[in-house]
Amino acid sequence: MNKPVTLTGYSLGARVIFKCLQYLAKTEQNAELVERVVLLGAPTIFYLALLPPAILQMVVGGFVNAFSTNDWTLGVVFRAKYV
């Protein structure tokens, strides 16, 4: 029996959690494994409404993406990845 977990990540750790959710979404047997996700300063700025439903279905409880639009470091990492 799998117990739900809470995943919290800051900066690149938040990016790793997002990638893990994408991987988990590929298999239905992992549904409801993650209770809560908190991403802090992820170098990927996205809005929850734009996420694929398969990723959101992996999370039973809340999904928080906290970032500052004034974060200079986050802006540099984001541009370096997507330019």
Automatic annotation (TrEMBL):
It holds the Pfam family DUF726. Keywords: Membrane, Transmembrane, Transmembrane helix. It is a multi-pass membrane protein. Signal peptide: none annotated. It is found in: Membrane. Belongs to the TMCO4 family. This is Transmembrane and coiled-coil domain-containing protein 4. The lineage of its organism: Eukaryota, Viridiplantae, Streptophyta, Embryophyta, Tracheophyta.
